[in-house]
Design a protein that fits this description.
By secondary structure, the protein is α/β, with parallel strands linked by helices. Helix content is 38%, strand content 23%. The chain contains 10 helices and 14 strands. The strands form 3 sheets. Strands 2, 3, 6, 8, 9, 10, 13 and 14 form an 8-stranded mixed β-sheet that branches. A 4-stranded antiparallel β-sheet has the order 7-1-11-12, with helices on both faces. It has a two-stranded parallel ribbon with strand order 4-5. The longest helix has 22 residues.
């Protein structure tokens, strides 16, 4: 967590760092959970609706750290969407989202799976759908959020160790943070300094891919994403609806009834 580009809210990043710093849990417990997961279905199926939970921080691979943080991996999400899309008993798919985002590596694969689904696919935000989670959700046919949901945080930032510092060991090494120019509100500017142009370019390029994916998924231009979608800020559901990030504000009961009435179609 100390280095590399991330698509996550500041609160989500703090939670991940806290989990990484916590005392290690027994590896036997993790192995037992991993074995159980292998035998679990990738989604819940009720009345033809496949419900895929996307919760917690999101990671490139299923690992001890993903399990410790209570998160999901991108391959898990992609596999669940593809399996539901191929299941003849499934008429429609729901991503049930409550995630602050996660790693950059791997997110596009999950987003592609969502955008490529042939059956009606709705993203329903129960809690938060921020950063990498919104990257994935943006390809859904429809995005619905509960009234208290938090949506957005479209931006990228990176944290890297300053190896040119005078630190004697890793604990003393200064960690620098670089925020994408397109999302200046992604994190508070605690220490603005120059000298990291190369890293800034990398972060900006990653954010450009994020913005292009959102624009394609939502059917708007990249300029409209940059102008209307908050420049890295996150919105409560009603304000997200006004900005165009989502399509509807509804409670869970109304959403599930609506989704249950959807019929499969040839394409999105």
């Amino acid at each position: 967590m100390s280095t590399g580009p991330w698509l996550i809210t500041p609160e989500g990043a703090s939670a991940v760092r806290a989990a990484f710093a916590s005392p290690a849990l027994a590896l036997d417990d993790y192995e037992d959970v991993e074995a159980e997961d292998e035998h679990e279905r990738d989604y819940d199926l009720v009345d033809g609706v496949a419900r895929i939970r996307v919760v917690g921080p999101l990671f490139a691979t299923l690992s001890f750290w993903a399990w410790l943080c209570g998160g999901k991996s991108y391959p898990q999400i992609a596999a669940a969407v593809q399996a539901a899309d191929a299941d003849p008993e499934v008429s429609s798919i729901v991503l049930d989202l409550d995630s602050p985002g996660g790693e950059v590596n791997g997110v596009q694969g999950a987003a592609f799976a969502v955008a490529s689904a042939r059956k009606p696919l709705t993203a329903f935000v129960t809690g938060s759908c921020c950063s990498a989670a919104y990257w994935i959700a943006s390809g859904a046919k429809r995005i619905v959020a509960s009234p208290t949901a938090i949506v957005g945080s479209i931006g990228v930032y990176g944290r890297l160790a300053d190896e040119r510092s005078d630190a004697k060991d890793w604990d003393d090494t200064r960690v620098r943070t670089v925020i994408a120019s397109q999302s200046p509100r992604k994190l508070p500017d605690f220490d603005a300094e120059g000298g990291m142009a190369d890293v800034q370019t990398q972060i900006d390029d990653l954010c450009a891919v994020f913005v292009e994916t959102v624009a394609a998924g939502r059917g708007i231009t990249t300029d409209q994403v940059l102008e209307r979608y908050g420049q890295g800020a996150a919105f409560v559901a009603a304000r997200a609806l006004g900005a165009g990030l989502i399509d509807e504000v509804a409670d869970a009961a109304d959403t599930w009834l609506s989704i249950g009435r959807q019929q499969p179609s040839e394409s999105n």
